Fold this protein.
Amino acid sequence: MRVAIIGGGVVGLACGWSLAKRGVEVVIVEKDVIGEAASKGNTGWVSPTISFPLASPGTLMMGMKSAFDPNGALVIRPELDTRWLKWLWAFRGAASRERFLKGVEALHNLNRRTFEVLDAYAADGVPFEMHSGGILTLGKTEKGISWFGPVFEDLKKIGFEGEIETLTVEEARKIEPAIGDEVKFVVRTTIDRYVQPQSLMRALADRLVELGQEVREHTAVLGLQQVSGGWTIQTDGEPIVADRVIVATGALSPALLRPLGLDVPIVPAKGYSITLRGEGTRPSQALYLTEPKIGISGFDEGVRIAGTFELPGRDLVVDDRRVRAIVDEACTFLKDWHPLPGETAVEGWAGWRPATPDSLPLLGPVPGLDGLFLATGHGMLGVTLAPSTGALLADMILDGASPAWVAPMRPDRRF
Ligand SMILES: Cc1cc2nc3c(=O)[nH]c(=O)nc-3n(C[C@H](O)[C@H](O)[C@H](O)COP(=O)(O)OP(=O)(O)OC[C@H]3O[C@@H](n4cnc5c(N)ncnc54)[C@H](O)[C@@H]3O)c2cc1C
């Protein structure tokens, strides 16, 4: 069997590895270069403890309020575009307590295999940067950190096996000496990890090639055509023929699927990051700064600081003012680490998270279009969910697996 995977982001590559390891012939088709879109500049957290839907009671109001706040963490912009208004309406519908809990459960179920698959990559000789030891959640105020306990309780009730620990700031500084004086509250998650996403994607792509599979870069897919027994993929180069197709094109999925009559509710949610060497006591862990909703990952190459969730993302222009504001805010949580002079003027990054209204990905076969599978819409959790998504798609394609717990993530669910 030959499977074409469209999109060489973290999700497409994870699907490729899981299929290739089960003996399937795989071709990954990427319009640019592997791992250069949303999967590139993220903080790389693999965080089942912080896997919950964005849509929850109160989020819409909060997002609307910061629509015009240049430093708002969540920005929801009113726009008169029909697709966007439809998405917003569905987001509102998904924000009830009941739907939120269902979403937490769906993500928990998908996450059950996350670490197993991540460890299988390492055991297979895929070399990538990975850090264990949990995430330190830092708050300046009790109110700022108070959301964490109830969300964690929701996870525990459905059998989540991780723990959280409340630490004193002194205890936390033994783990992360970079924590600053303004931090008053710390909660540590235990099982979460983080990876350097580019190292993971490059290593997966190299491993696929080593396994005799094809990774075709600089090849844009223009259309998909169902033919007898399979699919023909029209590209800006040679057409590709495959028995099955997985669409893993992230935020760009709607445009590719629309000609097939599929209207997938994915909008781009723009976020920013910057990776700096800086000077001072350098963070060497994953830190979540609760009040400004900023993530920090201490990578080998430097400190990555990321934030904002701008809906809908209109472009990928890096707003330097916003990036600087994120860095300045992050530094207020740190002891004495700061960018080197002129460093923030350099390498800011912006990416589009593929956001669905209920924050759940679209996974599995598309009814009525035999052999077409979706693995897209992973929103703010693509790195976390990619390994288990890959394993699930391989089970679906090879074994016809359709476990009941996947139903909330079916591509044809009602929004
Ligand atoms: C600031 C920020 C921080 C984040 N932090 C985290 C985090 O810590 N942990 C976490 O789990 N998630 C995080 N995320 C979310 C995560 O980055 C995304 O969910 C994930 O990258 C989505 O991966 P993907 O493979 O679906 O999409 P992408 O990485 O966007 O890949 C899709 C690929 O498809 C290609 N493509 C599109 N159309 C075509 C076509 N027609 N033909 C050929 N190729 C095509 C694109 O070029 C692209 O390479 C963060 C996101 C942002 C923006």
Observations:
- Residues 382-399 form the longest helix (18 residues).
- The mean pLDDT is 94.
- The domain at 2-409 is CATH 3.50.50.60 (FAD/NAD(P)-binding domain).
- The two ends are 33 Å apart (CA to CA).
